[in-house]
Amino acid sequence: ARMPAAQTAMEKKKRSFAMPHVFVILTIIMLLVWAISFFVPSGNFERVLDPNSGREIVNPDVFNFVEKEYIMPDTFFQTFYNGIVGGISIMANLLICSGVLGFLESTGAFSAGIHKLVRATKGKELSLVVIMYVLFTVFGVLGYGEGAYPFYGLAVMVIMSAGYDRMTGAATVILGSCGSFACGMLNMFTTGVSQQIVGLPMFSGMWYRAVVLVVFFTIGLVFLLHYAIKTRKDPTKSYCYEEYKDQDTSASLGEEVPMDWRRVTALIGFLVLTIIQGYGCVALKWSFPNITAMYIIFMILLAILFGISPNEVCNRFTAGAARVLGPALAIGFANGVMVLLNEANIMDTAVYYMSNALQGKSPMITLLIIYVFVTCLNFFVVSGSGKAVMMMPILSPLGQILGINQQVMVLTYQLGDGLTNYLWPAGAAVACALCGIDFGKWFRFAIKAIGTMMVAAYILIIVANAINYGPF
Q: What pTM was estimated for this model as a whole?
């Protein structure tokens, strides 16, 4: 049977507005860089040894144009492989940590903990919203962006079972993740990667990121509680009124998983792991190899605790890692952009022209331009690690030339990246799908809360530059 013409036209219209896959977007960027490389002259800044950090930095006073280097077609297609090889350290860390988290989830420890929480807050439903908001804030602080996705659907059902609408459930998990992920306190996928690239100690300057967290946490909580209380009193104010008016407040949370001593031990172990990770990175200057080693040891201990066979451990670990294979490959593709810039020897030239354009402008204007640029780029490229690999080698010397220290440049990048992950469609559409919420409705709600955070973020960046937020 033939479909009606109107339906066919509607489906074609929907297809025409489909957001390209991140691989497609990054490939287009690589093609653009390749095309531009034929017209941009090659050049290099002089590098000198910084006695304070012990690393080479740009000497902004000495720039030389050099003989033009062209990228041949075979070199361009090799860039996909070379980009992945160059980003393998970051990719390996992401895959291993996500695999271990997937294994922990498979033990039922998280599910059992949530069911117990629901029972404990019976009659104090608003406190349940706050507790779940804090839980996802913790996930965000630790950098569990996609890693927290498995818990979204269950958490929304928890909030709905307490008598709130679906938007409240979605806002609880997404706003909780949003500001805390952006603040980057222990986020190895944005702060950790960026600081390693520019040569800063991993998670240095954490005190100011804690201030950022408090600001974002407060903004998100105010908007969340205002909406939750308002719609509970008057369901017609709900963005999901059609569903909410017929909602069964005893919505099923699925089959209850009992909280036995093994699962209690697993959750305590996970808490200890996060504390060790934070201490190791801050006090012991740990990097990705140290962190992944701790996660693997934790998984082995979990396997012994639950009596899971080695083969089954491998299967569950693989399933957990597979969830982030796409973001991991996106890091490699994004690194390919930097490979092309280096092959053509035009990265320093781009920094030279950008610094000339921004020279003489106030730090407020310069930081605003950089912040807005990263925010707009995040519309197309969601991967925080991928953009860090692509952007920080450019932003780092640009900051040196313009007199903006590296810590402020990292902060500007991570705030431009983190907040709109949960607003622009390429990232937020996934979260909305997991929460069962329409993206259009979410955007109308979130633009107020996240928009307020974005304004606050720029003010925090300006304050950071004014106080010479360091080190370096």
A: 0.70
